[in-house]
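Title: Prediction job returns without error message
Component: structure pipeline
Severity: low
Priority: P3
Assignee: unassigned

Description:
Job completed but the reporter wants confirmation the result is attached to the right record. Sequence as submitted:
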Amino acid sequence: MKNHTRRPSLIILLIATLVLSSCGPAAAPTPTSEPGITGAPAPGAPAPATPAPAAPIQTLAEKPKYGGTISLVQPTEQNISNLDSGGNPTSSGLAGLVFEGPQQDDRTRGPFGTGEFDFGGTRVGPETQGPGLAESWTIPAVGTWIFKVRQDVHWALDTRSEASRLVNGREMTPEDWVFHFKRTTTNPSSWIVVSKPLAAKATTVEITAPWEVTLKTPVEPFTGWCWLVAGWWHPMIPPEVIEKYGSMKDWQNAVGTGPFMVSDYVPGNVMTLTKNRNYWDKDPIGPGKGNQLPYADTLKYFVIADLSTRLATMRTGRVDWMTDIQWEDGESLLRTAPNLKYRAYNTVAVPLLQMRMDNPELPFTDKRVRQALTMAIDFQTIKNDLYGGQAVIGAWPVTPAFTDVWVSMEKRPEAVQALYKYNPEKAKELLAEAGYPNGFKTELILENRSETLDLGAIIAAMWAKVGVSLELQPKESAVFRSISGGRTFEKMLMGTTQSNTIFWSQFNTLRGPNSSYVNGPPGGEPVFEATFQEMQKSMLINPAETARVFGEFVPYLLEQAYYINFPAPNIYTFWQPWLKGYAGELEQAGTNSPGYWFKYIWLDQELKLKMTGRR
């Protein structure tokens, strides 16, 4: 569990205040920022009332240097251990280091290029993508991609690996693409097959010309883009390895085309990756333009479960990079290690309260109850007091990064604004109208993590004021994931949703078998289905029209209160000053993984030696 020095007293004080008073919070002071540091408030300064800013355009002034070892730290083994891309989706933070897909994030349009996108864990879509294993592509119709397969790309060869020797560093071919797409859409344990069987069954792939592959996903083309074209969780793999070993679940069988190769793995401790010296890509911008990538010789992913230890390794320069740091810990790290570079992001992991609406015996089938529960929550107090102001109200189902779709809560229709303004008296009226004048009792399953338990305790205190008695039922992570993934909770569940690297991907959770059982499968709520079908007409070929249709749908979704979305807190990413060529980019085609970007990052070993006495 997370170890805070001041949070428990803050939460106790906040709950006590909620119980004793219904007065609104005081206005937040004007935010300030520390000169020379990007994207977050100065240590101890008031937090911003607006979304975290994007990274400004930056200049690559120094000529990159080769060599050295970059060390990263992760809290759990889950983030680095699952390397199989054709069975269950790869949850690995290594996806862009070892494996690749047809497209990749376009560095020339990031903070060191044109600045169109900050790649800060908030927005990724077809518009942000550049050539990857596909040299180019066309989309002649919705759900059809014609790829020009890049030539002279070779599978990485590590002579110490039996699997790698089997492939022997041969050139990747169009036949490899066909094998990969067919495996992904037919493997019984593949995410697409399990969750989107109709889309998987309708997918076709064939070689249509020399070094040309045509992929068609006529059913749910956005699923095709996310999981096949962008290579989110199913990057390209060589047939030989799968045919011999069945999968890549054993790290020693991992063979990709990426900039690094897995060379060692000590479960629960560290995974080591070494440079692929036959990598195809070159640096596209700056003084290193044209340089062979990657720059670093070695990457080490350390697994350190204890938060205080992870923070200490960052503070003392023992590791070079760390992300997913909550705002309190971020402020603490800034005070104690002011030389660190950092970015603050609006997290895509929005806390989302889900309710069973398929059971008529439960109160949640009545919209008035759902709206009352929403009105009985003081979102502004949660933002200010739980998250220090560093959060966004209304960041679901689309984040502020989507300026063409997102609308601040203050500009939403009045019916939506009313739900997110704290109004316990109106909530009581709605409960009474729905037949619950004295409230009711219910239970909430949530993960046994301190920040989640804190939020649950605050919700319980707020609902108690309108007569709703909430029993918290914390579950350890593995149990919680099983309940959440299987949708086996009986009444309510507090989860998180990836509130969209791509806003329209929300239909993966809104349509069909969704977490709140909205009308149940297979079609889901009728308006959801109608909106989904309308979006298919422009999907990926007319982004502005897709955005318009989705944007008009959002107020309806929020007003129905099928889900209660809470303020989305900012998170921090930190890196050492000797890591160069990096501006806090996280996204790799939607995986919220830093992997892809580390091929561009170089280590200033002289600066590290000067600052720490170590290379």
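Comment from assignee: result matches the submitted record. The two ends are 33 Å apart (CA to CA).
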